Amino acid sequence: MSKVIKGGTIVTADRTWKADVKIDGGKIVEIGDNLSADEVLDATGCYVMPGGIDPHVHLEMPFMGTHSADNFESGTRAGLSGGTTMVVDFCLPSPNQSLLEALAIWQQKSSLACADYSYHMAITWWSEQVFNEMAEVVDRGINTFKHFMAYKGALMVDDDEMFASFQRCSALGALPLVHAENGDVVATLQQKLLAEGNNGPEAHSYSRPPEVEGEAANRAIMIADMANVPLYVVHTSCEQAHEAIRRARQKGMRVYGEPLIQHLVLDDSEYQNKDWDHSAQRVMSPPFRDKTHQDSLWAGLQAGSLQVVATDHCAFTVDQKRMGVGDFTKIPNGTGGLEDRMPVLWTRGVNTGRLTMNEFVAVTSTNIAKILNMYPRKGAIVEGADADIVVWDPERSKTISAKNQQSVIEYNVFEGIEVKGLPRYTLTRGKVAIEESTVKAEPGHGEFVAREPYQAVNKALSKWKELTAPRKVERSGIPATGV
Ligand code: DUC
Ligand code: ZN
Ligand code: ZN
Ligand code: ZN
């Protein structure tokens, strides 16, 4: 049965125009005036935009002694409710586990997804087996590999492992991602704070100052350049990391930065709340920062030095957070945001004049579709694209509250924030999943989106390969040894 979205204004990353959109077989089949179809969706007064893509979520992830609370069903349902039609989750092998074995577990979990999804593969350990399996992972449509520079003793990789993995990415046409925080310094600061009796959630933010992120971002950027590969820095939260990205881009490196909606609008005063639960519920890594850093992130989105807004959606219940009573290092790290990313960014970005509507589409959908090599199947309103579409009503408003959210947790870090701009309809491959506040999302509808490797185009700035290429110096006088 064909559908037409009628009477709206199409907004893409590069233009805005009035036209109808016809959908058939899950794809956009025609864009034009006065189109007709079996079913009409009224978009009068609305913007018709590519559905959001959240490239950074952790659904049902084993982490810090527990599992993140939203699974692929509640997570993707939350996304759809807020206009996000695709998520990219992190497949996380435990150290010594085969990447392919972990992938099989993730495939099982994602069979519940209500919207399309893809994975990044995490490199949590290094061996010849991992080296070999990376090729198979790319063959299976996963062209991105994540590296944790923090979580010492658990997920963290050392520089030698990161350098080896980045070179492997370069050879395979894959893009490395980094969680940029200096895990050694964090671990030292955590122990110092605990020893001094600072065991509350505020100490979480003291243990992860912006410098640990700036140092790690810069280190990863330099290593990526030496490995001749582009780099994507996840959850860029501070000026120091942004500065490293800006500088690298200015020099001609392909480095991307991803602020989270949480870091753009919530600040570190949340950790000073008298209520332990309130502060612990906001514990994530990197932690919320002060206003100076927020201004830097907004400026980066406006100037193009930062390209993508994500959530790092990793939700934990009140009880899970309480695992860290008496020791902040045991509070599971993570906050939710899948349902709120687009309405909050629209309200604080577009409604305030910080972002144009086209920039909004770019940072919530199109840029990441291009970076992850799935454009224009995703992130575009063009004939032939998947009909992942949000019909956005700029006049619909609500106050964000955990009382009516899709996430299974009991609280919401954006609680009480008024948003103006919400989906009238969200369509996933042509199916209406959300119609105003009615949720019609179906578990199992979501499909895996395979992504091809990239053409290896990066040209390293570093001359280390030439400079250290074997050019043995022939010497005449060699001192005798062992005398
Ligand atoms: N940070 C979080 O807050 N949660 C999940 C993983 C991460 O890096
Ligand atoms: Zn488990
Ligand atoms: Zn991270
Ligand atoms: Zn994450």
TrEMBL record:
The record's listing under InterPro entries reads: Amidohydro-rel, Hydantoinase/dihydroPyrase, Metal-dep_hydrolase_composite, Metal_Hydrolase, Metallo-dep_Hydrolases_sf
Top-rank taxon of the source lineage equals: Bacteria
Q: Where does the record place the modification N6-carboxylysine?
A: 146
Sorted alphabetically, the keyword list is: Hydrolase, Metal-binding, Zinc
Q: Which family does it belong to?
A: Belongs to the metallo-dependent hydrolases superfamily. Hydantoinase/dihydropyrimidinase family.
Explain the purpose of this protein. Answer: Catalyzes the hydrolysis of dihydropyrimidines and of the structurally related DL-5-mono-substituted hydantoins, to produce N-carbamoyl-D-amino acids.
Q: What is the protein name stated in its UniProt record?
A: D-hydantoinase/dihydropyrimidinase
Q: Which organism is the protein's source?
A: Stappia sediminis
